[in-house]
Design a protein that fits this description.
alpha+beta; 8-stranded mixed sheet; 14 helices
């Protein structure tokens, strides 16, 4: 080829097109391969994030239930050890049971979830009973006391050793052998009683209203329209939060047979107390609700403050909490991942092609605008996701019956839930911006400030003030004994602490 022909080819662009294709096609193939791999990894990560989120919600319910039952067991043990109880057991005369009745009334008034507080003697006869009628606890007259010798919970608890504790299954409360209407799901905790001479005097038993558990699960389901939550009993029956009668084992069941609807999933649920799996109809995550397991974990994590329940040997509680995300959610995740990857791949190839073309023609152009646009989209999506997670966190803290405070590194309160505000006597939002040190007595504030600074230097999940009683100052200046749990975490690189407050005045009879 002559020199003139070569120059003409270059002017016409023939040689540039061959070079362009030679450089572009290998890069295009590489981008497609990498894009497919990244799309698969992204889908797996998103599904893992969803499963982790669902598992966290289920763990929250389990911990919430464990904290409630733990508090009730403490009340049960304290009541069994009171002098009033021992004197009533020794006397055994109806006319001398008034102090014990008053003690039961006080406990029921302070704990709205307690539907009944009873002493059932060793023969199975109710001797003292306080029941909640119309929302208020009342002492049941002697002629209305019932024989409970045939009830499973009496037989199980009455055969236990002194000091041992019993947790029943969740079922419907029965009166005179018939299910109470409307149905009321209850959990019973009991312990054997002994007189001064260590003679067996029956059991002390508390009926706990479990409606709050259904409402809590129902509220969680409302917070995320893409997920459904189900309670399933030990027979594999799917329970509706509005149909508590489905919890009874002896009567007709409400709801549907989960084992018949999803036999493969139920097989996995029976084999593992907690887990997750992807099925044809979507993502399933489950966790066995076990108050015993929850507060045993609390005992291990807060060994210096938690009460050990080594004598708890009978636990019949068995409910499975499951979450389900339909397959449409998975399809959307995959579609989103593929779309984002395809757009990213196409954008990359376009940028590369333009850059290569203009470079070969001596007119390379910058692609900084494309990169910034992609970065802005990714950052906007990330910020939206973070805002969503923050809103969920706020809702969970608001729903907790335990006082919750979020404190920053300087000791300033950033978040307070209604339970903490009620406990400390503040109106909504008054605690925000205050120093947490001001919630302690004046004499303890300097010491607490030093302890807090040391804790933030090496944060860990533990009890602040281990080995001594803690006190909090209410808004009106009164002092309330509290138990405080500290859980450090990081929010966008900022060290924060979630403080959980439990009012000890109820346990101490204040």
């Amino acid at each position: 080829m002559t020199k003139a022909a070569t120059i003409e080819n270059k002017k016409s662009g023939g040689m540039n097109k061959l070079v362009f294709l030679g450089l572009f096609l290998p890069m295009a193939a590489l981008v497609v391969i990498i894009g497919l791999s990244l799309a698969s990894i992204r889908m797996d990560e998103r599904i893992s994030e969803i499963l982790d989120s669902d598992s966290t919600h289920l763990q929250l319910v389990s911990g919430f239930l464990g904290a409630e039952v733990l508090s009730s067991l403490k009340h049960l043990r304290a009541l069994a050890a009171e002098t009033v109880t021992r004197e009533a057991l020794d006397a055994g005369v109806s006319g001398q049971l008034r102090p014990l009745q008053n003690s039961f009334l006080t406990l029921a008034r302070r704990n709205p979830l307690y539907q009944q507080v009873r002493w059932i003697d060793e023969k199975g006869m109710e001797r003292v009973r306080v029941s909640r009628v119309g929302g208020e606890p009342v002492v049941v007259d002697g002629h209305d006391l019932q024989d409970k010798r045939g009830r499973y919970y009496f037989q199980a608890a009455n055969e236990m050793l002194f000091g041992e504790l019993y947790i029943s299954r969740v079922d419907m409360n029965e009166e005179h052998g018939r299910i109470e209407m409307p149905p009321r799901p209850v959990l019973r905790i009991a312990t054997p009683l002994a007189g001064s001479a260590q003679q067996r005097r029956g059991i002390l038993i508390i009926n706990i209203d479990m409606k709050y558990l259904f409402e809590f699960v129902h509220t969680m389901g409302q917070s995320d329209p893409d997920v459904q939550y189900f309670l399933i009993n030990q027979q594999g029956l799917l329970l509706d939060a509005d149909l508590e009668a489905g919890l009874t084992v002896d009567g007709p069941e409400q709801g549907m047979d989960f084992t018949a609807l999803h036999p493969g999933i139920w097989e996995q649920v029976l084999a593992h107390e907690e887990g997750n799996m992807e099925a044809d109809d979507g993502l399933w995550t489950w966790r066995r609700l076990s108050p015993v397991g929850s507060f045993k974990r609390l005992t291990r994590e807060f060994a210096m403050q938690a009460v050990a329940f080594d004598q708890l040997i009978s636990d019949e509680f068995s409910l499975m909490l499951m979450s389900h995300r339909p397959h449409a959610v998975l399809d959307e995740v995959r579609r989103e991942s593929l779309t984002m990857t395809a757009l990213a791949a196409l954008s990359l190839l376009a940028v590369y092609a333009l850059t290569l073309y203009f470079y070969l023609n001596g007119q390379a152009r910058a692609r900084q605008a494309e990169v910034e646009a992609a970065y802005a989209r990714a950052r906007a999506a990330s910020l939206e996701r973070m805002n969503e997670l923050e809103e969920r966190f706020h809702r969970l803290v608001e729903a907790s019956s335990i006082g919750q405070l979020v404190v920053d590194a300087d000791g300033l309160i950033e978040i307070s839930n209604p339970a903490a505000e009620r406990m400390l006597g503040y109106d909504r939002g008054e605690l925000v911006g205050r120093s947490v040190d001001t919630l302690l007595p004046e004499s303890k504030r300097a010491q607490h400030r030093n302890l807090r600074e040391q804790f933030m230097g090496a944060p860990e999940t533990r009890q602040m003030g281990a080995g001594r009683e803690l006190a909090a100052v209410r808004k009106d200046g009164s002092v309330v004994p509290v138990e405080v749990g500290l859980n450090p975490y990081s929010d966008q690189g900022r060290p924060l602490v979630l403080a959980s407050l439990i009012d000890l005045s109820l346990r101490q009879g204040l």
